[in-house]
Amino acid sequence: MKILSIDTSCDETAAAVTDNDAILSNITFSQILMHEKFGGVVPDIARRNHEERIDGVVEKALKSARTKIEDIDAIAVTFGPGLAIALGVGINKAKELAKLYKKPLIPVNHMEGHTYACFAKNSKGNPERDILFPALVLLVSGAHTELVYMKKHNSYEVLGKTRDDAAGEALDKAARIILNEHIYPGGSVIERLALKGDENFLALPIPMKQSKDLDFSYSGIKTALLYAVQEMGDKERSTHMADLAASFQKSVFTSIAIKVRAALDQYKICSVLVGGGVGANEYLRNIVRIEAKKHKTPVYFPYTKKLYGDNAAMIGVAAFYKGLDAQAKDFETVQRSARAELH
Ligand code: ZN
User: Fold this and answer.
1) Contact call for residues 74 and 319 (beta carbons, < 8 A)
2) CA pair distance 120, 96, nearest whole angstrom
């Protein structure tokens, strides 16, 4: 089943062509440079950029997959969660193409896409994976931090999620505090700095360590970091940037490890899946590998870096697993849903 998929949920204009779970093309136009100077994503700028780029990105996805739109079996699109006015651009384009070429339209939840990034294969069908259910899915990005119980394909139960900031958002904010600059995104800066730092330099609390549930919370340690940095003064801050980054990263990811461990203790889990942009962080991946190994549970990550961040191929793969049964009966029923939940 060949699917043309579109995702415009945040600041990446993305289109892809997939054939079952194999990726034929995966085109992403990143708007990071346009939002960088504002220190975050500006919704209006995102919408305008999506509108300007969407046709070109779709065309490029088809071209690099050497596929004509007539040969596509279905069109898939992210309906949420995300920035409402950004989502709208992708949905309108998908509806327009589905109508024009008389193709089924499959709406996909963006977080479902991040989950299915672990099932995606390259055009030659590699890597071969036999992912067993039930699976525990850890989704970590700039907007989400959640643990999901996946009993089988297309069946989700959110076990825990962040009560305030997402892990990626906390890392972005920490980067601004540590570097004293309006940088965006900051997660990769923290990871790079932390490599040279002492993670025991600053004793930050481990969020939600004692809570009995599987929820997360990151606004408290962000404030703790801010106070610590203010107390240090500028000179000490600038000499200890690597140490601060390492200490912050340790606190954020240890809290994730604790919740992954608790979920593995509480549920019978046959595989662990990790999705979302923060999943690209090597420290996080290691800490999850360690927990999974203790439980003798295999852990799966997307096979290539590009599949961690926002992209459309993950939406196409999720749509394939949903199948044509999930197509919208009437295109008009497909609406953006900024706060869509997995269920
Ligand atoms: Zn995402």
Assistant:
1) yes
2) 27
Distance of CA 331 from the midpoint of ligand 1 (Å): 24
Q: Distance from the CA of 264 to the center of ligand 1, in angstroms?
A: 24
Best-predicted range by mean pLDDT (170-184, 255-269, 329-343) = 255-269
CA of 258 to the centre of ligand 1 (A): 23
- For residue 98, being part of any structural domain is answered with yes
| Residue-range definition of the domain harbouring residue 197 | 135-300
- The neighbour count for residue 124, using CB atoms within 10 Å, is 7
* CA 276 to ligand 1 center in whole angstroms: 6
Mean pLDDT score, 291-318: 98
Contact between residue 340 and residue 109 where contact means Cβ atoms under 8 Å apart = yes
Ligand 1 mean position to 308 CA, how many Å? Answer: 8
How many angstroms does the Cα of residue 110 sit away from the middle of ligand 1?
A: 6
Instruction: Answer yes or no: is 235 within a domain.
Output: yes
* Closest by CA position to 125, among listed 309, 318, 303, 305: 303
* pLDDT tens digits along 32-60: 888 887 877 888 888 999 999 999 999 99
- How far, in Å, is the centroid of ligand 1 from the Cα of 231? 35
pLDDT value, residue 36: 81
pLDDT tens digit sequence for 283-299? 999 999 999 999 999 99
| CA of residue 212 to ligand 1 center, whole Å | 27
Q: Is the pLDDT of residue 343 over 90?
A: no
> How many angstroms is it from 9 CA to the middle of ligand 1?
7
Whether 182 and 290 map to the same domain: the answer is: yes
User: Is the whole model's pTM more than 0.85, yes or no?
Assistant: yes
Same domain flag for 142 and 281: yes
> Is the Cβ–Cβ distance between 190 and 280 less than 8 Å?
no
